[in-house]
């Protein structure tokens, strides 16, 4: 009953209509500076800034927020980019362009609740506070089979997190209301990309040569507080045990008695993803004739697979077992039988095929880097020189028509 304090109009009569406010503010600016070092060298610096702050009263991320509008989520996004370009003219036939770029998208608040506090404080300070998700009850706890459970603090809801990351558990009463912070949880995250590229161009006779490289390092850090406060559902159905245990057509009797149909709870977890890319190329534009140009070149691409440096990933390899996390059967397990069933193999519960980074032939990214990303390019441009006759009319005269063709191999990282 004490949780009804979060339901607008609870305890009164008639209908209640609430219109919560949503706020959204954005700020943006950019700066560009061009500097001439000398007659052959130019420097350009560009900076971009975008800041957005949104308060969503329904915390609608993945449609998992409360319907009452009083458990809002905050979303703050700050996007920044800086580009630095140095252009150097070397003699009359060569140019070198070097570029450094840094891009950052920071969402230090993403679906971050504004209503926080210890889970056990959700019921207020009244008589119910002693039983507020603490693991104790004013009535005996029993299993589905009627076996008494006694009192144990582990029966309560515990996250191991500071109270600033906790809040009211998500309560879903079918056909009624939902309260609590978005059960999918907040997920503050930042992404950083560092890029350096260099291109060198040179003209030698009828050849226009160009060589270059591009290297990028990407970082993505996320802390997901998935369903840390717990999620209770009270369904409305007359068919037990799936629906209302008391046989009513609505879920309120079960809610008032605290008989949830289901309970879920997640945990907080870091995701620390890294990736490196390297691209090299060489090309030539050869003017064979005034009206015929041949373009050819080759490109090499290397992209390391996305890697979680925290190694919180796994994969499936048929027939293999993990040496990083070997299966053990404790003596307290109901499957344990002294002298006959003392390990996972004997109990038939070994997770064969489930392996982790560090196991035999399992790299940190779960797959190997591909180093054969050679991508040739070939192109031809021809401008017919027809002047007279039918062909001349079709082409419109010299320099009026161009025919191009090309071939290439491309890779999708």
Gap between N and C termini, in Å?
A: 54 Å
Mean pLDDT: 90
Low-confidence segments, ≥5 residues, pLDDT <50?
Answer: none
Structural class: mainly beta
Q: Treating each run of at least 4 consecutive H or I residues as one helix, how many helices?
A: 3
Measured by DSSP, the beta-strand proportion falls in: 35-45%
Give the strand tally: 17
Question: Major β-sheet, in short?
Answer: 11 strands, antiparallel
Question: Could you tell me the radius of gyration in angstroms?
Answer: 33 Å
Helix content: under 10%
If you had to describe this structure to a student in words, what would you say it looks like?
There is one protein chain. The protein is mostly beta strands. Helix content is 4%, strand content 42%. It has helices at residues 252-257, 344-347, 389-395, and strands at 23-36, 41-56, 73-90, 94-113, 170-173, 178-179, 189-204, 207-225, 231-234, 262-264, 268-289, 292-303, 307-308, 315-316, 354-355, 373-382, 403-408. The strands form three sheets. Strands 1, 2, 3, 4, 7, 8, 11, 12, 13, 16 and 17 form an eleven-stranded antiparallel sheet that branches. A hairpin with a 2-residue loop joins β7 (189-204) and β8. The two termini are 54 Å apart. The model has no long low-confidence stretch (mean pLDDT 90).
């Amino acid at each position: 009953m004490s949780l009804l304090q979060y339901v607008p109009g609870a305890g009164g009569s008639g209908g209640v209509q609430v219109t919560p406010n949503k706020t959204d503010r954005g700020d943006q600016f950019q700066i560009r500076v061009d500097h001439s070092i000398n007659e052959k060298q130019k420097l350009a610096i560009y900076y971009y800034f975008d800041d957005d702050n949104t308060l969503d009263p329904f915390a609608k991320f993945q449609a998992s927020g409360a319907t009452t509008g009083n458990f809002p989520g905050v979303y703050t996004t700050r996007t920044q980019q800086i580009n630095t370009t140095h252009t150097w003219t070397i003699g009359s036939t060569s140019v070198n362009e070097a570029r450094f770029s840094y891009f950052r998208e920071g969402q230090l608040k993403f679906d971050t609740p504004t209503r926080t506090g210890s889970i056990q404080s959700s019921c207020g300070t009244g008589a119910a506070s002693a039983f507020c998700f603490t693991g104790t009850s004013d009535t005996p706890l029993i299993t589905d089979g009627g076996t008494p459970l006694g009192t144990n603090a582990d029966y309560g809801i515990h996250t191991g997190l500071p109270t600033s990351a906790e809040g009211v558990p998500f309560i879903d009463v079918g056909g009624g209301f939902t309260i609590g912070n978005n059960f999918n949880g907040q997920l503050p995250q930042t992404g950083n990309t560092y890029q350096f590229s260099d291109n060198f161009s040179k003209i030698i006779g009828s050849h226009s040569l160009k060589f270059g490289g591009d290297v990028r390092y990407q970082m993505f850090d996320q802390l997901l507080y998935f369903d840390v406060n717990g999620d209770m559902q009270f369904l409305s159905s007359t068919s037990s045990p799936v629906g209302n245990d008391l046989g009513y057509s609505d879920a309120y009797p079960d809610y008032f008695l605290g008989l949830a149909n289901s309970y879920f709870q997640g945990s907080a977890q870091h995701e620390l993803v890294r990736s490196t890319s390297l691209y090299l190329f060489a090309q030539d534009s050869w003017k064979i004739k005034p009206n015929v140009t041949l373009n050819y070149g080759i490109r090499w691409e290397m992209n390391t697979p996305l890697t979680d440096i925290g190694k919180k990933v796994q994969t499936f390899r048929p027939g293999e077992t993990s040496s990083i996390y070997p299966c053990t059967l404790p003596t307290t397990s109901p499957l344990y039988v002294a002298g006959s069933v003392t390990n996972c193999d004997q109990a038939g519960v070994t997770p064969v095929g489930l392996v982790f980074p560090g196991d035999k032939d399992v790299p940190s990214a779960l797959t190997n880097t591909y180093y054969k990303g050679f991508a040739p390019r070939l192109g031809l441009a021809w401008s017919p020189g027809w002047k007279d006759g039918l062909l001349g009319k079709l082409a419109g005269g010299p320099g009026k028509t161009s025919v191009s063709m090309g071939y290439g191999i491309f890779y999708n990282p």
